[in-house]
# Entry
Amino acid sequence: MEYNTSENNFEQCMKCTVCTVYCPMLAVNPDFPGPKQAGPDGERYRLKDPSFYDEALKYCLNCKRCEISCPSNVKIGDIIQKARLDYSAIKPGLREFALSHTDLIGTAASVIGPVVNDVLKLGAVQYAMDTMMGVDRRRTFPEYSRERFTLWFRRNARAAQEKYSRFVTYFHGCYANYNYPKLAQDFVKILNALGYGVHLMEKEKCCGVALISNGFRKDAIRGAKKNLKSIREAVAKSEPVLATSSTCTFTIRDEYPHLLGLDNSDIRGSVMMATRFIFNLIDSGKAVLVFRNDYRHRIAYHTPCHLEKLGWSIYSTSLLKMIPGVDFVMLDSQCCGIAGTFGFKKENYQYSQKIGEGLFRQISEAEPDMVATDCETCKWQIEMSTGFKVENPISILADALDVEATIEANAALGTEAADK
Amino acid sequence: MNFDTIIIGGGLSGLTAGIELQKRGQKTLMISSGQSALHFFSGSFEFLNTEEDYPEALKKLPAGHPYSLMGAEKVLETASKVQDFFAGAGVVLNGEEGRNHFRITPIGVLKQAWLTLEDYARLPSDKSLPWKKVTIANIEGFLDFHPDFIAAGLEELGAECHCRSISLPELDRLRNNPSEMRSANIARALTGSVIGNLAKRLSDVSAGSDVILLPAVLGLDDPRPAQSLKVRTDRPIEYIATLPPSVPGIRTQMMLKNFYTRLGGTYLLGDSVTGGDFEGRKLKGIRTVNHSDKLFCADNFILASGSFFSRGLLSTPSGIFEPVFDLQVNCPQERRDWTKENFFDRQPYMGCGVATDGQFRALRKGESIENLRVCGSLLSGSDAINEGCGAGVATITALHIAENITEGK
# Structure
């Protein structure tokens, strides 16, 4: 059907400039050439001669809001990310290494968790990281947990999973493993209550998003290959692979093929957000969630950029709206500004905060008890910048859940189905 | 996931239908595959190019025109509601009862218009201007506005024009990036205290003028900066459309979309409908790229996916087709008949669109689909450019369909 289409549809650009309106970076930083110039316009030159590459493309947040706004389906953000990996001459340094190798740093830190947390809070250490490494001192690092999730799971939950007859595989991601195991535990709690056992991947590596954005393509490919192997094993057992982080999900589904050259077409449809899986169960009548009647909170929902790109915020918000005691506020979808490791870098701090201003204002005007969002770095940014508490929708569902009643209701559903 | 009505397309027509249905108590979903043609908004809605009063002009339209399908009486009744409808969303439009006024185009030509945004110049005639001496001011370095063109046009109508360039230090940083010194970025800078400085500079350069004409680059999120500048400047100010992106268009799109979601509508941006499941003459549900395995079901569906620009219609060497449901398309059989050699002639391809019955129900394989209606520029039989009826068809057919759906017609 399509004529003359090229990689990322770049020749479909009709120069309408709509993308430039929705680029959060261009709005605050005129040094960024903007999505049209950095993407399809610049690509014409780079194809002719790579020396046309402009290092100012480092300012692209990879939020994909240009792609969402494009009336011609040009993969503007993909063109820019690919160009950065292919042409950038900037060599990543110690800071980039430390910020992006989350597996390595996370494993080391969780062994000596509380010590790292205390050390990172020391003014002198923050000062040194700021001046020597360029990590902005106004940033607070997420705390490392003493017992990482995988260890907790092995000790406390793994054996109990085998009593179930249906299973899902969980891609927990670095954050839930090293920093916030409660999120992963909440996931297990909900899936178990719905009658599903939880398996972990045979070998889970970081999804690689920070490696990609910091220029470590080879390391990213190595991890991605291991992930794909384990995902294929899960899918072969007919288990969907569920994640609680929108960026991990997005990276595995949509960045592996075009940035890392790894074909994922056989498993892409099986990798999804947990909220999508749970919503579809409820929506199709295959499961029910029963909520406590004493749960009362005003919750404002923020759509992370990568969930906006996936188009899946509707699943998280629909689930939150099912909780009877929730006073739900939908925030207008805007970038929070952190963009993963981007906002931790000293030279980017000002842009990060300026981009997030609109969102922060919306949150303070909504005066919620807490903010809900599916991305851990959005959570850090909002907590650091507004003081409001932020939770993943999975954790909110888990807190509001009447576990016993949910188990009973789903067991009854199962018997009903068996009777039919 | 079940809805009362699902609307495919989130531009002017889709949003109009969605807002009206939400107001009438329906639960709706809107899916838009990217931002809409409102980003090219001239500042004016057109109803029909005509020197006559609308009732007379409507009688002369061909039978296949969307207005003719609705009937003149219904068209006029619905048209009379459009102004209040948009005011409800905060978009203030002005016009004359039942006939056209004139707007100034970016190249200084006066064109017919039906309803014009409050800040824009709205002229009663195209034979003379209400001003003798005109200052046309541009922002220095802004390339999407051409005062000399406008001056040439207005001087033909007897005005004395003076073109001025305004330089503000607050815009110096933007000038570092000449390729992105665009309307939306300028609008972001022209707020707060900068308005006062701009007002002063404009007063300084426009001594003796009856009016100052400015590019419409104020007020990206709300109309206040544009109004505030008017109040603070010594002489009257009128805004003129720029080349895209249109700041008032972006604002209008955002205000309509926000109004729609405030009314409880669900708006999915950046997703594309890939097709639907039909049961006989009924559409049961649709599927999208982002929600591959999910069937979105509804009692009624509205296709407002636009014309060629928005990819509501696609043309290939072998034919013109509607890509979502492969609906029946009215277009000349032979490819050579799609176009006329003279660029300024009425181009037949502009009249191509989806074939419908009298209730705007889409035709597919020779039969009308009971619960799938088409509105806006995707409809066949009208030529938005030649007839000047784009926004009129978009809004009037949308309101009509929303009314018919809720009244069970």
Remarks:
- Chain B has twelve helices and 21 strands.
- The two ends of chain B are 25 Å apart (CA to CA).
- Residues 72-88 of chain B form the longest helix (17 residues).
